[in-house]
Amino acid sequence: MASTRILVVNPNTTAAMTATIESCAAAAAGPGTTVTAVTPSMGPVSIESHYDEALAVPGLLAEIARAEEEGSADGYVIACFGDPGLDAARELARGPVVGIAEAAMRTAAYLGRGFSVVTTLERTTGRAEDLAAHYGLARFCRRVRACDIGVLALEEPGARDAVLAECARAVAEDGCDAVVLGCAGMADLCREISAKIGVPVVDGVAAATRTVETLVALGLRTGDRGEFARPPAKPYTGLLRDFQVR
């Protein structure tokens, strides 16, 4: 039986975070699944604004286009809680593409009447709220909370305790049945926090990896008859000249 090959793309350019993401995705994957995580060659070192997110997309798409050309992946995970470039990636890829925010929120919705999201900076909470509405999950989302820690500061002393404390407040104050970790950089905190706060904690990296596995096993992919058909070939100019779809 052939192995399922999942490419996990960290849309920022911090290799240490990519290594953490790969470890967590591989731990979640089932037998016979090979997980590879990649860091784009261009983009921001962290994604903490709409500007960051927009400029992360070209590097993300370049990684997916490369894997498609090589035939090296059966499905893809976008490992940033803003799900940047998700629709464009689905146009490029033959296999399924899943973003960690969508996967985490959908998974959490199976676990009770409501979930809260704990993310990094306050300025990113609106994006998470918008995604919950976009995915039809707003009625499940009790609240989006920020612990006001930058993405790259998640490895600093005290960060884990701050995330844990905000998750505990979510359980105490929001009436939620589950907590969603709102950053790929929090993926390795999932089990520890769940054990301490007494409710399920969902990491989107793990949830998306398992979702892609299931879709591939079922022989399913994004439909391509209309909106998600391959982009029409046309010239791109300047810095984007190499992004022309062939």
Automatic annotation (TrEMBL):
Pfam families found in the cross-reference section: Asp_Glu_race (PF01177)
UniProt signal peptide: none
InterPro entries xrefs: Asp/Glu/hydantoin_racemase, Asp/Glu_race, Hydantoin_racemase-like, Iso_Racemase_Enz_sf
Superkingdom of the organism of origin: Bacteria
Family: Belongs to the HyuE racemase family.
Protein name: Aspartate/glutamate racemase family protein
